[in-house]
Amino acid sequence: MANAASNSHETPGTPATPALPVPPWERTRRAKTPARTPLSQEAIVEAALHILETEGYDGLSMRRVASELGTGAASLYAHVANKDELMKLVIDRVFDSVEFPEPDPERWVEQVREMMRGTRRILQAHPGIARAMLGQVPFGPSGLRIVEGFMAILRAGELPDQVAAWAGDVVSLYVVASVFEDDIRFAPHGDTSREDMEAWAGQMKSYIKSLPVTTFPNLVALADPMFETGGPDGRFEFGLDLMLRGLASHSRRA
Length: 254
Prior knowledge:
Protein name: TetR family transcriptional regulator ActII
Pfam family, one: TetR_N
InterPro entries: Homeodomain-like_sf, HTH-type_TetR-like_transc_reg, HTH_TetR, Repressor_TetR_C, Tet_transcr_reg_TetR, Tet_transcr_reg_TetR-rel_C_sf
Keywords: DNA-binding, Repressor, Transcription, Transcription regulation
Organism: Catenulispora subtropica
Distance between the termini: 111 Å
Shape: flat
């Protein structure tokens, strides 16, 4: 028995026992899945923001967010009521770092201009958000703070209350719509490059110039400036200046 016992132990120099094949009855066991990211409203919002930026507005759905988080869509509803609420949370998340200057009655027009430029930069940094904002009322904590700050600047310019109230919506809509248009044209998930757009603009200009001048005298005359290479930035600044000049004309300080 002693000899048998000693033979059952591996002695120095003895090759290790080779790995054994997995028994067929164990092959059907599911492999262990990695631990899921703990679900929370913040995790859901971050996942939705990532999808918006990489796949665009049309790629976002509750099912897609759930897939991103490795869970089922039903589990999201314990934290977010529906896609509409998720959109509002995402928008509020994007704008939570916006800071407003102290309203200056002497510089209110420039302050509005700077804020609209800053809003545009934020939207450009988060593709898909401009589309999500259309039709949304910004009544989250960040949205309310932004609207309050914007109204404070407009009222510092001594605009009539009705003008200030409508201007906040109209000017903001202009910024959102301009970025949305750029997203459609130049979104990273799209197929249109700036070179493609420049080629298209050249074709359009050539076509307009070829129109019968007796029928379309104004179109032909404006073909060159219509497609002036100012790009999205130039067109945005022109539109913003146009709006701010109109606003300034209502100011009691004028």
